[in-house]
Amino acid sequence: MDQSFMKEKKILPLVLSMSLPMVISMAVNAMYNIVDSFFVAKLSENAMTSLALVYPVQNIITSIGVGIGIGINSTVAYYLGAEDKKMANKATTQGVVMNFIHGLLLTILCTAFMPAFLKMFTNNQNIIDMSLEYANIVFMFSVASTVGITLEKIFQAVGQMKVSMFSMICGFATNIILDPLMIFGIGPFPKMGISGAAYATGIGQVIYIIVYFARPIPVKVERKSLKPDFKLLKRLYGIGIPATLNMALPSFLISALNGILAEFSDKYVLVLGVYYKLQTFIYLSANGIIQGIRPLVGYNYGAGEHKRVEKIYRTTLKLTALIMALGMLLSWIIPSQLIGLFTTNPETIRIGVLALHIISFGFIISAVSVTSSGALEGLGMGNPSLMISLLRYVIVIIPTAFILSRFMGANGVWMSFVIAEF
Q: In sequence order, which residues have a C-beta less than 8 Å from that of residue 177 and are 6 or more positions away?
């Protein structure tokens, strides 16, 4: 397939054509997260708290897959822009192999680590048991997750966003359909409770991969490219490791904030988990645009079109700011309805509404960080992108949350989100 349209098409139509399929994919992903949690919340608040505690470790698995995938995406797009198909094929091959190995290692490590991790945040044995029941099943599908993400990034690198969108939608739709059937035992399925949610997630990831393999891959996985090319791997990991840390830092942040909030009540831990489910509607839509422009930046940079790269960045910044403004508006217009998707407890809803009101003041300004990080990764500049994320997720927010919580209680934790974004 000819990728020259990436450096010839007008900027706004190009950004939209590359980004809209990803925005739709991210919107479906957000809906899947909401629906998944909605059905689990019907079991009990403890079940929802269990998902909130497992989420950071799940996110680390996804982060490693996506981070290395971004390295593959940027590298393949760069070599295609430079018209070096041989190196593009080699980057594809070695990227797929490495993310397969990552999935295997993560299955083992996360399963072994989980019991000790959970005991850091709760003494409630019922929550621990449900968390382990869910986690042990989900972690079995880690290879499917990392390989699926790799294929997604490869198709995006060559501009085939609609293939990526279709595969995501098939995986998410499978998950959404299976959730109520397997959780509550509808039709031929036995009632599996929280295990059903985990199996539905894993099966959705497998369907996701199958759809990718049904389409011919535009760049090739070749046996002759299996021999490690350490210069190439250095480039892949030079972009991929900072991108992985960018993705994993929210998990570290959630765990740190869970530790602070647990001093007040388990309800605050639940509200933080609910907030991270809800923010997928907002940030994942913005991230859909970022996924769309990352290969555009890499391709045009490789082709020497530097002015075009700058125009792509500025156009993207305006679009992401618009999305974040919409997110803030929803957080003020229908906050109780959003929190009410996950709990009927009036006190929990009250806490959640106040949290949404406070945190949303940082939404619009966060567009600068989100857009800049994505553009830097597209340029192969992983370290500056990582520094932005370190400031947002560790260096500023965690100390601020701890200090403000001493004076303002849990509201100080919500305020730290706004301070970190500015």
A: none
CA dihedral 269, 272, 277, 283 (to 10 degrees): -160
pLDDT of res. 31 = 67
Q: What is the pLDDT of residue 29?
A: 65
Decide: 229 and 90 in contact? Cβ < 8 Å.
yes
The residue whose two tokens read 């945190």 is 359
Token code pair at residue 133: 């029941």
Q: How far apart are CA 362 and CA 364, in angstroms?
A: 6
**What pLDDT does 41 receive?**
80
How far is the CA of 126 from the CAs of 25, 46, 47, 129, 348, in angstroms? 35, 7, 9, 5, 20
pLDDT at 3: 59
Which helix H or strand E contains 254, and what residues bound it?
Answer: helix 230-261
Quote the CA–CA distance of 410 and 347 in Å, as a whole number: 14
For the chain, report the end-to-end CA distance as a whole number of angstroms. Answer: 43
Radius of gyration over every alpha carbon of the chain, rounded to an integer in angstroms: 21
pLDDT value for 260: 92
d(CA 10, CA 14): 6
For residue 227, give the DSSP letter. S
| pLDDT tens per residue across span 374-422 | 899 888 887 888 899 899 888 999 999 999 999 999 999 999 999 999 9
| Model pLDDT, residue 284 | 74
pLDDT the model gives residue 4: 67
Q: List Cα–Cα distances, 39 to 133, 175, 183, 343, 344, in angstroms.
A: 16, 12, 8, 11, 13
Tell me the C-alpha distance between 320 and 122, whole Å.
37
Residues of the chain with pLDDT under 70: 1-4, 29-34
Helices (H), 334-396: 335-339, 346-359, 363-378, 382-390
- φ, ψ dihedrals at 29, nearest 5°: -60, -45
- Secondary element (H or E) of residue 236: helix 230-261
Q: Between vectors from CA 125 to CA 122 and to CA 131, what angle results, nearest 5°?
A: 75
* Cα–Cα dist 29/36, whole Å: 10
From 415, 139, 410, select the one nearest 270 (Cα to Cα): 410
Relative orientation angle of helices 11-41 and 161-184, to the nearest 10 degrees: 10
- List the structure tokens of 353: 């509404």
CA distance 417 to 324: 14
> Can you state the percent helix, strand and coil of the chain, rounding each to 5?
85, 0, 15
